[in-house]
Design brief:
By secondary structure, the chain is mainly β. Helix content is about 10%, strand content about 40%.
């Protein structure tokens, strides 16, 4: 079902593992690296997490849902990114599963720079029923 904002209402049952999203490209600037370093309070930090902020960007551009809760996230860092290089992020649905009656989706994103260097891989598990959080504590 396509809504007025052109986003599709998520149908977890119909969601296909392996679905790929549009690639996302941007140029990594020195300012982005400096902002990251300031945020982590480490002026030498060599690995701003590239795909972290864009690993579900393409999913969110396509689907509308009731929100999500990050259930688990794994970062694999390979090559330090270089300021001034174009970064391409490709993302896809790598899995979906039902655990204790709750729906989860897994997105995977890989960042590569313009020279073909693998920068990072991010795997994110999201609980797609955020209203379930807190129920086990009685709230």
């Amino acid at each position: 079902m396509v809504e007025a904002d052109n986003k599709i209402l998520l149908d977890w049952d119909a969601l296909e593992v392996g679905e790929t999203f549009e690639k996302y490209e941007y140029v990594l600037t020195q300012e982005m690296i400096d902002t990251y370093r300031k945020g982590v309070m480490d002026p030498e930090a060599g690995f701003p997490t590239i795909a972290h902020k864009v690993d579900v960007k393409q999913y969110n551009a396509k689907y509308r849902d009731n929100g999500s809760v990050n259930a688990r996230c794994a970062f694999y860092c390979y090559s330090p990114p270089i300021a001034g290089k174009k970064i391409t992020v490709r993302a896809w649905i790598s899995d979906k599963y039902l655990r204790r009656g709750k729906n989860y989706i897994v997105t995977e994103a890989v960042s590569v720079d313009e020279d073909g260097r693998l920068i990072d891989r991010v795997i994110t598990h999201e609980l797609k029923q955020p209203s379930e959080v807190g129920k086990k504590w009685g709230s």
